[in-house]
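Dig into what follows:

_____
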Amino acid sequence: MNLSLIPQLKHAQSDNFFLLSGPCAIEGEDMAMRIAEHIVTVTDKLKIPYVFKGSFKKANRSRVDSFTGIGDEKALKILRKVSETFEVPTITDIHEISDAAMAAAYVDVLQIPAFLVRQTDLVVAAAETGKVVNLKKGQFMSPESMQHAVNKVRESNNDQVWITDRGTMFGYQDMIVDFRGVPTMKQYAPVVLDVTHSLQQPNQASGVTGGRPALIGTMARAGIAAGVDGIFMETHFDPKNAKSDGANMLDLSLLEKVLTDLTAIRTTVNSL
């Protein structure tokens, strides 16, 4: 995995895990800048290669009145400002073929949501931008089946592709991470563990997704021990009032302790 190919990615040679982190959705400029500044400070201290994450819009929502965004171009411009201000790369989700070229003009990594990772035209459109493509493993897919999604990117003349595991559906309202899938998927591409969405509790009767954020540290530590290349972690300074996925986000004030623990475990794993 050649992290140095990603523009502005610092600490690429640190041999630490890389981090995709930020709010679930861009709610406004001030909140995005506040979250980014804090994460950049911590990751620079710990020498963690860092990519700021924020969705410019949220298309996969439980209810029609759920928050979907502040406007595509407005949110994308905020992502660009974060990148320019803090000199970090950025990642955002895309949901439609037309999103690929639009978002690629503003960010460095395009993410395919788990529900959409089998959509060939969407994956190919992302790959053809030349940006890094982060494929979320479908909650309904086996680790082995992700090789086909990876191949769609590579057969589109783009070798910059990652797989992110965000758990597999267990019953109606729980996600389970099967860590046996980590070495399997690492045969195909670098593997990231999404520790916040893996702790979601979807399909609630209220139409608002639940979560178990108290287990974020546990899930992340297990992922590093299992050998993942990266960690995906959504965070917010006020999760209870976040406009999307607040129930499973990490409180920003807890981030440094979690990342410090993960760095120590990564150092141990590297020594084995």
Observations:
- The domain at 15-271 is CATH 3.20.20.70 (TIM Barrel).
- The two ends are 20 Å apart (CA to CA).
- The first strand starts at residue 18 and ends at 22.
